[in-house]
Amino acid sequence: MKRIYILFLISLLTISACADLDIPPPNVVGDETLLTSESGMKVYLARMYSRMPFEDFKYMPQWGFEYNGWLNALGIAGTGEALNRDGICAAFTGERTPYWGQAFTLLRDANYLIETLPEYQSSFPSVTYNHYLGEAYFARAMVFAAMARRFGGVPLVTKLIEYPADAAEADIPRATEEETWDQVLADFDQAIDLLQPTSQERGYANKYVALSFKSEAMLYAGSVAKYNETVPGRLTGFGLKTGVRVIGFDEGSWQTASIRYFREAYAAAQEVINSGAYSLYMNKWVEGDPEAQYQNMVDMFSDLSSSENIYVKEYVYPTVTHGYDAYSAPFIFKAPLASGVCPTADFVELFDGFDRYPNGTLKVTTGNSNTEGDYLMYDSPMDFFSNAEPRLRAYVIFPGDVFKGKEIEIRAGVYTGSEPVEPLFNDYSFAAAETRYQQLSEYTQSPKSLFLSSREGNGQETVNYNGAEMTAAGANGPFYDNGEGCLTGLYGRKWLNDDPSFDAGEGRSDQHFILMRYAEVLLNAAEAAVELSLTGEVAPDGSDLMLTATSAVNQIRRRAGATLLAGNITPDITGRNIVRRERRKELALEHKTKWDVRRWRVQHYEGRDGFWGETRDADQFSNNSRYRFRGLYPFFSTESGQYFFDARFQWVSLKTFEYNVVDYYFAIPGNEVAKSSMIDQQPNR
Prior knowledge:
disordered N terminus; 31% helix; 3-stranded mixed beta sheet; 4-stranded mixed beta sheet; single chain; globular
């Protein structure tokens, strides 16, 4: 099995330039040392990999590649997967540290290896030599791909620039976006041709790693080429300094380019699939057993030997660690912070196993909308989720479920009025989103029938129930004046260390992060297949596109414990949305969704009906550029001793997101534009 692990060296040799002296200083490591032995190459590649644009526990969308992991949280970049109380919970419209200077540093390392290693070719067997060159092309492809999906067209620095250099050589203009994606494709293909099927060392690439990331990159390129055309006025533009089309595609070539990229994405994914090198993780999976299926998916993200892992970033305590558990575990495990990842009701609605209103939203009352009828009552909060697909439970901690050996008590409040209970609000629309539970007459009147808690501890209101004092809020909240409690009524489970003996804290977590897995490759193939079919294309390998897409989705749904598709996926928008929705579910909380909704061009208001990978009325959760997400809040009713749920816009920190067409491309760093006679700012900035 060809699995990849990334274990960064604790200390890397510093590679520095020196003056042209007759005798080099004894502390300088030259090419003769680094590029003539496998041990030297290991150091060189470790340096490159330490700078790779990998998005894992130490990447935050609002901050960019700062590699510190402070406030680790996933799915909070305005994608609707989850919410967080902090300012880092915002739409993905830019990064505090733009991926520009770091990118060119890594490009220099890659270009240096490509140009210099041939001088030492005789030092290695041909297979090893080619593999090392393949590593350089892989790194360059990854850098250009990371830049292209942020900026569109970028300077294509494909040769070593010796400094000091004259302005004509050093000041390279941005290429067109199409030229940039073509370079990404060329570099991936070169890497695939040179790399071996297995890796030389832990942490290095191989042929199948490159193929997998190629399929991801080409899916992005094909989507942008196509869906830029759906944005009002066509999303494209020219640089003022050069006149180059730095974002978007030419009106006469976008369709050809899109098809070409989708074909490349499909072929690359199919090569990985047909290799038989990887498979979906099924170690504890049992047909018809939701508990086993749930546990199988929990274990999948902690099993370093998983057959599904294609590329993994590994951590090892105490030397190479992160702090995900210190910031994102439930409130009762606060160490020093908590509740960094609180999934939304909107996200839950993607999954099978829930009763729904006619508009598709979660059914919490007996009526045809959440303002009609009476609340449905449950003996336990867990009963609401009794038929949910096991995959969701593996990703999300439900109210009343057990984590680290403890019941996770989540309760928004206690209701002491008579039953049946009518909806607490008569307006659940976006316009009424900032009306909170603590403003209801049931809470403000005297005597009141609704009890809430502002904070934990002394901030807890209590109710006498069956001779005992019951706190209004659960041990984990929500607390209406403390965003460190549970914001949405749900917690993220994926990636958390569930070992009861594990003592969380900053820098104490060492679970690995899966950067690429087989399920994503299946979904890449499925999406590319549908996109090709929509244009009347046939598969590059002669396979049946719709059978491929259907098989891929059903494999994932079967493992997830979801209902299999009733028939084949069809080559239309409905079929496309089946694949998109599955991708939204399967790859949630993995730094993937923020790029998916971006490439589908569904974040701006006019395209937001497709934001969830399926058709939803954007006006239900947004108003022009702004949008919000809902929580799913359990309340305890003292009359029957049962629970009811209310699905309402998140009410603790009132998170609102904003996204406009201009945000599909990040701004070029202003200092780079100012100091260059050739680098263009985005035409819409």
